[in-house]
Each structure stands twice: as structure tokens, then as C-alpha cells.
Amino acid sequence: MTRHPTTIDDESLIAALRLASGSDPVPAQVTAAARAVFGLRLPGATTARSVVTPVPQGVRSAEGPRLLKFVAAELTVELEVTSLDGLVDLAGQISPCPEAGTLVEIRTPHLTESRALSPTGRFAVTGLPPGWFSVVCHRPEDLPVVTSWTRIRP
Predict the structure, then answer these.
(1) Kind of pairing between the strands at 122-128 and 150-152
(2) What pLDDT score does 59 carry?
């Protein structure tokens, strides 16, 4: 049996040669986006992983708020996500309730909203754009805990 080499079209070959020669620079917007994403890192932070939340019993419709839960070794972040008029509202709770002075940041690729926690560990943010978000819990005496990035669609 004779094997034929994989065919490659001329445009792909030319693009590969440009990349290999270094004469095809990365577009400026791609570089800017990569730097912006790199700036969202939190070195040393603990990542809270998403866990599946069961649908509450007695719920007939899937149109209600979406419930999300993120768990790290030392705390849990629970979020209720509501979409209205193309924007997103988040209501959350950190448990166990962290010490006084703890701040929560809700980050998107384009903006960051900071909130002080209530005495019961709750916070809320309204009017976020749909898309990717992450929640960071900054504790005065410990390293921050950050949720994994999650995409919200209205």
C-alpha cells in the first residue's frame, strides 16, 4: 500500500513559512490581549474549583437564577447568577465567614468590582456584562482565594 503525503494548500504553506522565518509578527491586538490576561494572574493565590450544584427540589423551571459553587481547602464561594436585560447580577456568600477586613473582587476581562463582605459573608454586584468572570477573596491574614474563570451567558 502506497502512502501519499498529506496535501497542504499554498496559503497554509506560505503562512507556515512566514511564521518559521519570523517575518509574520503577532498582531498588536493579540499581544495586548495576552498582556491583559497575564495581568489578571494572582501569584500565590489558592484556586477554588467549581463543583456541581444540585437543582433545588420543587423547581419546575430552569429560567430561575443559576447557582454556582466553588470550593477550596479553607473556604467555599457560593454564587447566585441572575440575568436581566442583557446584564448579570451576582449575589454571593463566602463560608465560613472570613475575618473582618476581607474584600471580594468580581473580575471580568474588562472591569473589577470590589465589595466588603457583610458580617455574614455575603456580597452582591449588579449590572455586570455577560461573559467571563472570576471572584477573588482577599483575606488580611491569608493568601487570596480565587475562583476559576466561569462564563456567564444571558
Answers:
(1) unpaired
(2) 59
- Between the CA of residue 51 and those of 7, 132, 147, what are the distances in Å? 44, 17, 11
Tens-digit pLDDT profile for residues 30-70:
888 888 888 888 889 999 999 987 766 665 555 678 899 99
Question: C-alpha distances in angstroms, 92 versus 27, 54, 76, 123?
Answer: 38, 17, 10, 5
Cα–Cα distance, 87 to 80 (Å, whole number) = 14
What one-character-per-residue DSSP string does 114-152 give? EEEPPTTSEEEEEEEPSEEEEEEEE-TTS--EEEPPEEE
Instruction: Quote the CA–CA distance of 131 and 152 in Å, as a whole number.
Output: 5
Which of left, alpha, beta for 101 (phi over 0: left; psi -120 to 50: alpha)? left
User: All 3 cell numbers of residue 148?
Assistant: 476559576
- For 63, residues 6+ apart whose C-beta sits below 8 A from its C-beta are none
Grid coordinates representing 46?
489558592
- Between residues 20 and 47, the one the model is more confident about: 47
Query: What does pTM read for this prediction?
Result: 0.74
